[in-house]
């Protein structure tokens, strides 16, 4: 049985004091969950969030990483920097990074390798656009993104990776994929993993759904056979709402 992993992606939201207040408010509400809970916060909130989350079941992640260890990369953060303060997870290849910051599959692959090198667990996002879905290309696109993202990873590495299936048209739009469509697309990804790493790995790897997850649809989504939790944007900014999502299953 795979566990459910529920990760919040705050994007560019919340100041350090807001992050602390959020964690203090939510911690008692989710203390009995068996699900894994992760909050991916802005860089400036990382240290404060790690402090606030001590003694709770909340793990802290970043939203991006540079693939080099150090050097002349103004404005960037390396895996060793994240690791040094106790960060455990990092989102890689979010569609907003791909779209607004020109991240290619090749860069995503390098970032995943950098994360693993510093013992950070990457949450790797893949997903098709509305147009690609309408043209019947969704499966092909996510298969290709998955394959390119994971290129060169061995069997030991792969199980440290979480994949988030995030159809781009469902992100921040209020339009959620149907449970059937989300489950089907995740099966496509799982099959792709099976082809590369075999059935044992495919059955173990955590694959989340992301895109307008809310407390009202979380239970149905997370109970689907292949959906192992969610990557939650907007709804993870509201403590009550995020707690309800975590406690939905
Ligand atoms: P959303 O964002 O839940 O606001 O749709 C999800 C994401 O971007 O990870």
Keywords, separated by commas or semicolons:
15% strand; binds 2-phosphoglycolic acid; alpha/beta; 249 residues; 8-stranded parallel β-barrel; 12 helices; TIM Barrel
What does this structure look like?
- This protein is α/β, with parallel strands linked by helices.
- It has a single domain (5-246), classed as Aldolase class I (TIM Barrel).
- It has twelve helices and eight strands.
- It has helices at residues 16-26, 43-52, 79-84, 95-100, 105-117, 130-134, 138-150, 155-158, 179-197, 199-204, 218-222, 239-246; strands at 5-9, 36-40, 58-62, 89-92, 121-126, 162-165, 206-210, 229-232.
- The chain has an eight-stranded parallel β-barrel with strand order 1-2-3-4-5-6-7-8, surrounded by five helices.
- Strand 1, helix 1 and strand 2 (36-40) form a beta-alpha-beta unit.
- Helix 5 (105-117) packs across helix 7 (138-150) and helix 7 (138-150) packs across helix 9 (179-197).
- The model has no long low-confidence stretch (mean pLDDT 97).
- It binds 2-phosphoglycolic acid.
- Residues 9, 166, 171-172, 210-213, 231-235 line the site of 2-phosphoglycolic acid.
